[in-house]
Each structure stands twice: as structure tokens, then as C-alpha cells.
């Protein structure tokens, strides 16, 4: 019986050729022995019966310009939690799941409160202590990495863990790429990694908060409108941007260093692994373009990674203030 070969371009931009016999569809790949959600090619599936068989281990609240922008709920299997509490590391085949929700908030008797509402994405990591899938670009550094469409969890959308996933985990390299200190269920062996700044309160006076910038009457000095804009921009940057971006030359984190960014071509800072969308955008970061990007992080340069993590500032004045502050970093 004649076979037909057809090629489909998946949403992950990976070209996959599948041979389909006229007698029926091809059989699915077998699962591996070490993980029921990983097939023999290393493709990771979202656990079909989640949240059954998983426990919540911790939640992140990620700040935006006007409060909490996202909540990140993290889950693991109870047996993996028990193993970590005993050994201080995750066992082979351990599964970590993170649900990212867009946060909303309102006034409550306890004050302004925020909670997750609309799903933004899902991440799944599978521990691999044996380096099993050396030719699969979603495996490396001891883990399998996957990201799933929030509206269709059967659709895996990451293409390469180094460009799509790893950058967000660089500060946690000493913790096997997982920010274990944020997950109380993992016990003392995880909490010992808590950053000193967090233990001591971290922020200096005036940092990380939207406070009014006024003239310093006590010293007899005054600030210009441009100086006030720069100061406001720094405060916005500290609360909304600093978690991902450094202001030191060449010091990249989740995002690239923003030292000298104004006047620079998008996607051109040496040493940072940009997405194809950013690297090929052809955009120069003049003030006008920076404000447009900050106002519409998903739409100004479609497909860039920042758009999936930060929805942008709420007003053009905020964007203009941040751009004014960035212009001083040189």
C-alpha cells in the first residue's frame, strides 16, 4: 500500500517529517523507563492527570510597575520533595512544574491584595542525572526543559533550552538551576540558599518603591524636570526591571545588561543569547522605540522573550521616565 510523506511546521518552529501510512496513523513514541512524561526521543509531555500526584511547594509574586504583575505557582511530586529534604538535591526523574498567571488585585480588609487569574504559560522540568538526550536541544545542564501553551497543554512550545529557558535560571546555577530557597516544602536544605539581601530586608531606603521625588529644601538645592524624570525612572526600573536586567556593562542575567542600551541596536549586546526575534528586529534603541517597547512588550517586537514575562508599563510617562534613566547608563 502506498505511503505518503508529509511535513508540518509546528508552532515551535521545528520542522518535523512524519510518515503516515494509509492504513492508519503512526504509533506514538514509547515512554522511557525513567519518566512517564518523557518519550524515547526526549519529548516531554504535560502530566495528563495534573494536579493529581503533585503538591504545591511555593509561590512567587513578581512585581510590575503598579503592583504584582504575575504569580508563579510551583509544584513537585511528593516523593521528589521527600528525597530533596533528605539529600539536598533532586533525584533522577524528578519533575518540577511552574504555572505562570497574570495577577489582578483589589482592596481587601487586609489592604491591597493580588492573586493569579489568567494563565500565561506553563513550564516543566525533568531531572536527568545521566545525560540521556544529548542530541535533543531541550535537554542539558542536568535537566529536560519544556514550556506549554496555556490554552493547550498538549502543545510544547520551547525549541532550545539555552535560549528559551536557561537564561532565567542563571542566578540559580549553584542550586542546580532551581531557586530552591523559595519553596518552603523543600525544607532547611533549600532554605539555606536564601540570599542575604532577602534575610536582612534587602532594599535600601527609597529603593523598589514608587515614592514622590521632590526638591531637597533642607539643603537649599532643587532638581530640574529632567532630573526628576530620571529619578522617577530609576525607581520604576528598580521595581519593575532590576530583577531581570543589570546596569553593569557585560553583566547579563535573565535579560541582557542595559548599560549603554540607548543608541544600541536591539539584540547586539555581546555575550547574551538573544531570541531570533530580538536579534533580527532591526530596531535601534532610541528613546522613542524604547518607550514603544515598554508600552507593548509583546507587540512592538513580536516573538521576543520579554513579552512572555512582563506585559509592560501602564503609561507612556512611565516608559519615558525609564528611558530617561537608561540614557544615563553610559
Put simply, the count of helices is: 8
Give the low-confidence spans.
1-26, 203-221
Tell me the span between the first and last alpha carbons: 68 Å
Q: Approximately how much beta-strand content do the residues carry?
A: 15-25%
CATH architecture heading of the largest domain? 3-Layer(bba) Sandwich
Mean pLDDT metric? 83
Provide the number of structural domains. 2
Highest-level CATH class of the largest domain: Alpha Beta
Indicate the CATH topology of the largest domain. Chalcone isomerase
Which class of secondary structure composition applies to the elements?
Answer: alpha+beta
User: Count the strands?
Assistant: 9
Query: For the record, what is the CATH homologous superfamily label of the largest domain?
Result: Cytochrome P460
Largest sheet composition:
7 strands, antiparallel
Backbone shape:
globular
Element order: H for helix, E for strand: EEEEHEEEEEHHHHHHH
Radius of gyration: 23 Å
Helix-residue proportion: 10-25%
What's the short version?
This protein is α+β, with helices and mostly antiparallel strands and 330 residues long. It is built from 8 helices and 9 strands.
